[in-house]
Write a structure and sequence with these properties.
73 residues, alpha+beta
């Protein structure tokens, strides 16, 4: 029996929405992000949700890993 690896859920993002709208999609945009320590106040892993990683993932496949706890200032 083959085991499945869990991966982060990614959502498709329309290219026109990405370029024309001001999407809130990264830790750096969130109220829970602590700039001084570059960590999430809730203790969540920020590796896949940082601006640089989000842009890389979007450019490779048109998807983003939106944090379900994203809180806008």
């Amino acid at each position: 029996m083959k085991t499945q690896r869990r991966r982060i859920k990614r959502d498709k993002v329309n290219p026109s929405d990405f370029t024309n709208k001001q999407l809130i999609y990264a830790c750096e945009h969130c109220s829970f992000y602590m700039k001084n320590s570059q960590a999430c106040n809730l203790g969540l892993n920020t590796k896949n949700h940082r601006i640089s990683q989000q842009n890389k993932t979007y450019n490779m496949g048109g998807e983003m890993a939106f944090c379900r706890f994203l809180e806008i200032d």
